[in-house]
Design goal:
By secondary structure, the chain is an alpha/beta fold. Helix content is about 35%, strand content about 20%. The chain starts with a strand and ends with a helix.
């Protein structure tokens, strides 16, 4: 369903992105930027894009690690996690936002554009909602780092999904986030970090299904 395309960020940097388009639809519901975990635009993220495209959205996932290393596509072994963390440590939030903005522009031909991100991408999604114009809504999945950025003020409606057993994102901190942003829809599931990814041991089918239902309803409301 998807294909690799090239984007050009505002600073002139060229990066790759995975784009998935709805099949057999004259008019898409809108556009959606999908922001990767620390594992690159890997098979899981491409499947996520394909899934949203099947729901009618033109979906673009920018390869945010292209600035540091090309063709990053890794899994979820301990070695992969260590490598992903090394790449994330090199990554600048400002640079990631420039690349997200390029993906937003690529998706904008479909109409209104939302953004959804997972893990580190959840944090980048939160920052995008706060610092970039042009998004009609944002959906955050277990966004590592958000609790250190509670003071950011999103410019669009936000929905956030967290796992109550996520040791990296304490539930008490999620409660503080929800209290600081009562306008946001914050959900906590009886699950661990990464519960949406069926390639991880922490995958929780029930939590992933419910979060997806809520996410799609939110996208239908704010994107189309």
């Amino acid at each position: 369903m998807g294909q690799w395309i090239q984007l050009t960020a505002s600073d002139g940097f060229q990066l790759t992105a995975y784009r998935a388009d709805p099949a057999g639809q004259d008019k898409p519901r809108g556009g959606l930027v999908v922001v990767q975990e620390i594992f690159g635009v890997n098979g899981h993220i491409r499947a996520v894009c394909d899934g949203f495209a099947a729901e009618g959205y033109v979906t673009v996932a920018p390869a945010l690690f292209d600035r540091y290393e090309g063709n990053v596509d890794i899994g979820y072994t301990p070695e992969d996690i260590a490598r992903g963390r090394e790449l994330k440590a090199k990554a600048s939030t400002d640079a990631a936002l420039r690349d997200v903005a390029a993906a937003r522009d690529a998706a904008a031909s479909a109409g209104r554009v939302g953004i959804v991100g997972y893990c580190w991408g959840g944090f980048i999604t939160w920052m995008s909602a706060s610092r970039l114009p042009g998004f009609t809504c944002a959906v955050v999945y277990y966004g590592g780092g958000i609790l250190d950025a509670i003071g950011e003020q999103p410019k669009c409606p936000v929905m956030a999904h967290f796992g109550e057993r996520d040791s990296m994102i304490p539930v008490a901190g999620v409660g503080k986030l929800a209290a600081a942003h009562p306008e946001a829809q914050v959900f906590v599931y009886p699950a661990d970090h990464g519960f949406n990814c069926d390639q991880r041991q922490s995958y929780d089918a029930a939590a992933a299904r419910l979060a997806r239902e809520r996410t799609l309803e939110f996208l239908h409301q704010h994107v189309g």
